[in-house]
C-alpha cells in the first residue's frame, strides 16, 4: 500500500484551497470480457474531466488516481507529461488558476480484492459482472478525483460496455448510440459514486408518496443479482422493506428522498455488508438466501436495507467533513436501521437482537487496547479504514438510543429535521448536530458529548441490595458504577431498573424504576420499600450502553431459573451480561456453557438462540481450560443433538440446532451422523438438508479428517456455483494435513492470485481451533510475513491476512510463548504502520483475555462470579 495514504492535514489544506464544480467521467468497460490469460493487470480506459476552483491562484495541489498508467494529461488546455507529474497515486498540479479544468486519460485496473472496480467471473456460466466499492477512498482506482468527503461535486458519467450488458450508476441512465449516459447527480462525495455493469438479473418496482402540501414523489425502484442467483431472489420482500422504510423516513425526517431512483444491487465477493451509494446501494449477495434460514436472517437483511436507506440523509445528503466524525453517518444509520425495523416492518423485536448481538460487538471493541472515542482521532486513510468498527457502529447507535432517552424522541427527530434542512448537500462536524439538539431539547449537549462521544471505554453497573431487618423489603438499593483504569470516565446513565421474582414457575418483573445513574454510587430511592427481589436487572429495557453485573442473589437466581424469565428482552440482556462476565473471567467458561445447555432450548427469540450458540462455541475454544475442551465438546454435541431431535419438525429452532450440532461435532459417532445425513441414510423429521446445510455438514467432516478431497469435489459437482466454489475452498483448507496448511498459507501469503472472497474462505478453512498442533509452526512465519504483506497488498487483503492468520489458537504448551512472540514483534516494530500495529494489538488482547479466562478456571472452579 505504498504511497496510497492521505493524511487529515493534507485533506484540510486541500479543502481550504480547492472547491470542485463537477466531474465528467467516461469509462470504457468493453475490456471486461474475453480471455483472462495475459501478462499484467486487466485494465479499462478511464477519462475524467474535473472542473474546480482555486482560492489562491498560482498555488499547487494534487489530484488522486491509483492506476497502472496515465496516457494523457492536460491542465487548463496545457498538456502535461504523465511521467513527470504522476507517481502512481497522485497527480501533481502546479500554478493553478482561479478556475481550472483537469483532463486525465488513464488505464485503470480491474480489481480482484473488492476495492475499486471489482471484476467477477461466474464459474457457473462464465458471465462477467462488475461493480464498484470505494469507501473510504477507492474511487481513485476508477477515475481521477479529489478523494476526500468534503470536496463534494455533481457527478456525470458515461460508459461503454459489452453488447448485451446493462450499466447502472447513481443517476438514471439510458443507452444512446452504444453508450450508457447517466443524469447528473446532486453534489456528492467521491466515495459514494458508483457503477454496476453486466448481465445482471434486474427486477423493477416503484414507490409513490403524496405529501401534505399536495406534491407527489415518485421513486423508480430496482433490485439486481447475478443470473445464477435469480431463482433464489425474493425481490418482492426486498421491495416491501424498501417501501416501508421510505414511508418511515419520510414521515420522521420531513425531507423527501433526494436522489431520484433507488436501485439495490446484490453483488458477488463483496467485502462489506452493504454500501450507501445514493441511487445504487450495493449489498453482499449472501443476503440472497440459497437455502432455508431463520427469521433472524430476514430481520438482519431488513436492518441492513434500512441502515443503508438512513444513510441517504445521514451521510449522503449531509456528510461528515473528515473521517473523525464517521459516527455522524454510521452511528445514526445503525440506530435508525433498528428504529425503522421496529417501527415500520414485521420485525418488531429488532431491539432484542440489537441488545444481544450488535452490542456484543461494541462491548468487545470498547475493551480492546485500540478503543477510541466515538468521535475518533483519524489521522489518515488507514486509520479511517479500521474505524469502521464496533465502536463507530454499535456503540454509537447504543449511545444514540441513550440520547433519545435523555432528550426525548420528539426533540431528537426535530433536531434531525433541522440538521438536514440547514446542511443539505454540505459537510458537518460534531458541533453542527449538537447545536440543533440543544435547540430542540433545551439540554446541555456539550457535557453529554464530552462524556459519551469524546471518551472511550465501557462502564459496568452493579446493583447492591440491603434488606430490612425482617428481610422482606428493600431498605436500600444502590448502583455502583465502575470504569477501567485506562479509561476512568464515569458517565451519566438513564436506566430502567427492574425487580424480578418467581411467581407460578415464572420469573417476572413486579417493580420498575427509571432513574439517572451518575458517579460511582447512586442510591435508587424510588425502589426503597419494595418487596425483596430475586433478580435485579440494572439496565432493563436496554436504554444505556454499559456492562451489567449481578449481585450474588441475582446470579444464583439466574443459575437456577434463567429459562423462567418470561420477557424476551430481559432474557437477552441477562444472557449478554453473563457472556460479558465470561469474557472478563468473572464467570467460568464451563459454567456459561452449562447455562446454555440447561436453558438454551427455552430461548424463544431465534436471533438470541443463534447468538448463544456462537458464544458457547467461543467459550469452548477460547475461554475453557485445555484439559476440559474435549469434555465440553462432547457435552455441547450431546445437547445440540438432543435439542435438534426435540425441536418442532421444520422449525427455525430445528435448523439452528442442526447448524450448531455441525459446528461442535468432533467425535467419530457425531461425524458419522453428519455423514449419514449427507448421504440420506439417516433422516431427522422436518430437517431439509438443502445445499447450504450440506456444506455446513461437510466442513467439520473435512476438518476432522472424515471426508477427503474426492468427497469435496463431488459436493462441488452438485453445486458448481460461485457459492459452491467458496465453500469448496474453505473445506479443502480445513483438512488436517501439514501439506494442506502449507499450500493454503502459500496461496494467501505468498501469492495474490486469489480473489478477496477466496482469500477469506482459505483463511477460514486454515484457522481451525481443533488443529492447534498443525497451526503451531505458523506463529513464527506469521510475524515474519505481516509487515511485508501490509506493504505489498491492498489494505483489504492486508486486514484479512493480519487479522485472520494471527495465531489465535495455540496449543496449551505454546500459549504463553505465542503471547511473548506477539509482544516481541510489537516491541521490535514500533515504527510499523499504526493500522498494522493496531490489528496485532487487538489480536494480542483477544489471546491474553482468553488465557486469563483459562487461568481463572484452573485457579478456582468454585467461584460464582458474583459482584459485590
The helicity comes to: 40-55%
Q: Can you tell me the residue ranges where pLDDT is under 50 for at least 5 consecutive residues?
A: 862-868
Largest sheet: 8 strands, mixed
Q: Please state how the strands of the largest beta sheet are arranged side by side.
A: 5-4-7-2-1-10-13-12
Distance between the termini: 50 Å
Strand content: 15-25%
- Tell me, what's the shape? globular
Structural class computed from helices and strand pairing? alpha+beta
- What is Rg? 28 Å
Total beta strands: 28
Oligomerization: single chain
Averaging pLDDT over every residue, what do you get?
95
Number of helices: 28
Structure characterization notes:
The chain is of the alpha+beta class. The protein contains 28 helices and 28 strands. It is globular, with a radius of gyration of 28 Å. The C terminus is likely disordered.
Short summary:
By secondary structure, the protein is of the alpha+beta class. The chain has 28 helices and 28 strands.
